[in-house]
Structure formats: structure tokens, C-alpha cells
Amino acid sequence: xxxxxxxxxxxxxxxxxxxxxxxxxxxxxxxxxxxxxxxxxxxxxxxxxxxxxxxxxxxxxxxxxxxxxxxxxxxxxxxxxxxxxxxxxxxxxxxxxxxxxxxxxxxxxxxxxxxxxxxxxxxxxxxxxxxxxxxxxxxxxxxxxxxxxxxxxxxxxxxxxxxxxxxxxxxxxxxxxxxxxxxxxxxxxxxxxxxxxxxxxxxxxxxxxxxxxxxxxxxxxxxxxxxxxxxxxxxxxxxxxxxxxxxxxxxxxxxxxxxxxxxxxxxxxxxxxxxxxxxxxxxxxxxxx
Length: 289
What we know:
It is a single chain. The protein is of the alpha/beta class. Helix content is 40%, strand content 18%. It has two domains: 3-80, no CATH class; 91-281, Vaccinia Virus protein VP39 (Rossmann fold, 3-Layer(aba) Sandwich), CATH 3.40.50. The longest helix has 19 residues, at 13-31. The model is unreliable at 1-10 (pLDDT under 50).
């Protein structure tokens, strides 16, 4: 029987809701990953995509494989963790980091940066270039974390399709780049490989924003275009995590579709550039609602 023939079984929205609930419970009990606080519409869409990509006719079939095939877990996590980005994505954000944030960080003898939800590493390498050009990289450490081990492996390799180079070069120039982005990579056989010297102060590690604790003491935390996939309570949880990670006066950079305005964190951060979603920690201990 073809896979297409089995798909209508999930057509009943009520049945699909039950299937999704059981999938979430299976992931938590079998593998320890809790997706119950992810935004429902986004989660459902990605679980459906996984069911199709893995040749499962229904979410129930995907749940069965999640329970019985432990080797499938990396693929599941990659599909659920949204590993999509670009180098110097939203160039105006990186220009503000270059012009307003790095000069402040330069006052510290050692600079720790936490890139949470680093995906395939494009923004990690963008940060490394910013720090290199500001003369700060030798006293900086970037901690790049993600839920997906497959995404982290991709990030470590630093290899991307060469077709991305033109757009990334435009982003770099718009972000205030003073050189050519080509100075930081080599191209061959349709691929570009970022210079491995950009990795010399980067630590890649798995971290679960839902269940894991503070990863490091940071002067700058970036978590861009991750919180939009979370429910409001989970967003508050993550913002508390970032608050507790930052030194007083440390900086937080979120995605352009994300904001702390309605969160409990709003009184503990001051905007550096609200339009670019860059904030600075001003409060002491977290003031819980």
C-alpha cells in the first residue's frame, strides 16, 4: 500500500490532536525532550513535515518509530528545532552589535558570548568575524548551543552551499563589514568552507532551553528566531534563563519578531535598540510575576 493511501487517516482534526499529544508524550517519556510548551501550530506543522519526510503515513506511525528506533532521535530533533539561518541575517542588527555593543564589551578583560539555538552556525561565524574585525576575538569565547546534535555537527564543519555567498556578502557589507567576506572562506566544488580560524574560540555544545540550566556567565546572549516557536510561559522561562546568565549590564539580542515588552523580563532590561530587539540587563535578581 502506498504512503499516500494512509494519509487520510489523520484528516479528522480531533484524531490528529490526539496523535500530536501522544507524540509529545512519547518524546518526553522515551527520550526526555519536552515539546509540550512549543507553539501548537508550529509544532503540528513540523511534526507533519517529519511524518512525510520519514515516510510515515500518520503522526501515530511517526510516534511508533520515535518509541522503537532510538537511532531516529537526531533526525527528530533536527526537524523540531528549526535549524535555519543566514550569515549576518538582518544586517542592521549586526551593525548595532558592531557599533554599540562591542565597544562596551571591549571594557571587559574576557568576553563570554552565548549563542543559544545556533542552528547550523551561520550567526556564530558572523559573530566571530565581528569580534575579529573589532580586535576582540583573542579575548572572547563564544558558546554555541543547540538542541540538535546534527545541527551542531553541521555548524562545526562550517561548510555551506556556495550559492549562499552572494547574499551573505551583501549582508556582510550592509552590517558594516570593512573587508570582503571572501577573505573568510574558500570555495570549491559548489561549496564554501569558512576559515577554521574563526572556530578557534568557539565551543559547540548541546543544550535544551526547556529543561537545562544556565549554560555560562555571559556578557552577551543571542537567541534569535527561536522564542517565536515557544508558548508564552516557555518564552518567560527562557528569558529568565538568559537574565540569570547575563552579568549586570550584559546584552540580550532576540529575533526581530520577538520582544520582551509583555514579558516579566521587561522591567529588568532596558532597550539599546528596541527596533533591532537588542536590550541590556539593568535589574538585579529576577522579579518573578
